[in-house]
Amino acid sequence: MNSRFLKIIWILLAIGAVITGIASAPTVSGDNGLSSTLWIMPAVIIIIGVTLLTVFTSTRPALLRTPVRWLRAHPVTYWFLMLVFLTVAIGWWVYKAQPTNGRGLSNPEFCYLFSLGWLFIFLIGYDADTASVRAMGARLGSSKWTGVLVTLTTILLLFWGAEAYLRIFYITTDGYGFTAMNYWWYENFYYPFKNSLGYRDHEPKSDSPDLTTIAIVGDSFTAGHGISNIDDTYPQVLERMLGDNFDVNTVAQSGWDTNVETAYLGAYYDNLKPPRVPKIVVLSYYMNDVDYILFRNPETNPNSVFQFQDLNTPLGWFVLNFFAPNYAYYNIAQFTSPQKNTNFTDILIRSHLDDTVWNEHQGNLQNFYQWTVDHDAKLIVLLWPQLAAIKESQPALQRVRDFFADKPNVQIADISTVLEGKPTLSLLVNRFDSHPSIEANRLAAEMLYGLIQQDLP
Q1: Can you give the pTM of this predicted structure?
Q2: How many CA atoms are closer than 13 Å to the CA of 180, on its beta-carbon side?
Q3: How confident is the model at residue 203 (pLDDT cuts 50, 70, 90)?
């Protein structure tokens, strides 16, 4: 290895592989996706032996020298095999460990990557000299396959560049929960931040005579789908606005519908030590709260407007496990279709105007309201439109307004009144996700704060 710079990098990679390898406990079960760490110690021993032999002696064992000399004598094959080696090695790590922003790499992963870099430099620089490099260049210049290899290399660079960009800068949600980016957003920013009761919220405050407890019940809109910092969600913003004498509890999970919310609301406060009853209950209502009815029939299932890859096919596996094809298939081919998004919204709107669906659904709304009556709690119904179709959502929301209109001790917080007229993109988490943005969450908190303040002494 004639290049001093290359040799320094090679030695540093070897040191990194050894340190992280020693720090990795040899276990059979994987750590962050690597199926086993039993490979580490043999790899570390080989790296130490070859590195010391190269750095401190001039010995070039035939076992190491012969393969790399043969490869340099066949530069087209050498180039192609290096592409295959890097693609398989990096692809295996990405597939098994799924590295993404928001999750730190484990020691086995660091050891794997250091070892991979060490082996790559070994293959391109071990026992190399100026004459052999010039000979390789001459052979490549006269080969008809060089252009093909340049094209293939460019495609792979673009692919891995896109993959790296999406995994670092685009761990975010979509509106329907289909994409790999959405899955890893939940893994990195949703599930790790649940409290002891299983909700994406801070721990409930200790009960006291001066404490006013407020329950906010809902689905992904309330849990903060797409909002990476839970302190930017409207329940947390509302609690800060109200002050220390208020405890705003998030009783919400992504995917909840009206048919389950009453039971979970009751269980939440029964499980507190000691049990308590909220003085105010906020029901966050979005049109997909009728999904539990719609999903029974493929013709009314809102997700039926989208197409899904068969995961048992090679293309399906590729789309599932790598972000670049996943982004292209779902975000570009599916979510940018105006017709599909319009059909999705239309199904939700029509379901509220369908008497068969509504008659069943209003029974669950009545159960929720009755819980607040039985526990002497004020009910605020926070109505969310489809943020990209606020006017179109009104016929569906009007039916909910009418249901609660004559109910005592109920207030309607119609967020449409403060959202309408604002730039649509400012209200959305991202352009592929119509869940409320940080700005929309702030506006919802301000509306609730105003209603709650009206009833304070």
Answers
A1: 0.84
A2: 25
A3: very high
